[in-house]
Design a protein that fits this description.
Length: about 120
Amino acid sequence: MSEKIYCIAGFKPKPGKEEAVFKALQSLEPNTHREDACIHYTVTRQIDNPFAQGTSYPIVFHEIWASREEFEAHCQRKEIQDFFAKHVESPDGDIEDANVCVYTDEPWNFDAPKV
């Protein structure tokens, strides 16, 4: 049974703050990569492509964590909480809106045997 958690965290910067938000999010990567449970943690920015014209927030983190508990521990790190307080929750922050969701790769009613 897979315990992995997949997180997609989208960010909508305030007008003119796109580069600042991208750099601020990139600054979170080095310490997060040091966490044993971090499998993948990369901030990306949306680009134009004629084969992918969907709508999304322009900056997105793609994350994979070894387990739900370890993802939740990551979310409680001071550096992560400080980022959200300064950039998302503060009226003076550079981010207009954020959308953070977690997913599993297990199908409904997955019946893998316990090992």
